[in-house]
Write a structure and sequence with these properties.
alpha+beta
């Protein structure tokens, strides 16, 4: 398996893609002559199949982040709802079930929301 070109953000834990990006700024890997989403490749490398009705949502809102800890598989409708900050702030629990409130969440520079407890468990 080839090297995975990422740099880890020491504050937020994002695995920031340093490899090639598409014309719209999304991380890509090349398989022969075909570009593939590096985010989808991250799931494949972890042995996780993305169901057809799900899309990866960046909890950190950093489109260059390929960290599976910052990606959650959600429906397309949920992904659209999460684009609104008001909706993200209304979430009461993270994907692992930890409480999310003003004291327990981290707001990233891209206005993403991460769980402090999950971040603590990562390090």
């Amino acid at each position: 398996m080839t090297a995975w070109p990422v740099e880890v953000d020491p504050v937020f834990g994002c695995e920031v893609w340093t490899g090639r990006v598409s014309d719209n700024g999304r991380p890509i890997v090349w398989r022969g002559r075909h570009p593939l989403s590096a985010i989808r490749e991250a799931f494949t490398r972890a042995g996780i199949e993305i169901p057809a009705e799900r899309v990866p949502d960046h909890l950190c809102r950093n489109i260059l982040c390929v960290s599976l800890r910052h990606l959650e598989l959600v429906t397309k409708d949920e992904n659209e709802r999460r684009k609104a900050m008001k909706y993200r702030l209304a979430r009461k629990r993270c994907a692992r079930g930890h409480a999310l409130n003003e004291m327990t969440r981290i707001v990233t520079p891209n206005m993403g929301l991460l769980c402090r407890q999950c971040r603590k468990e990562e390090t």
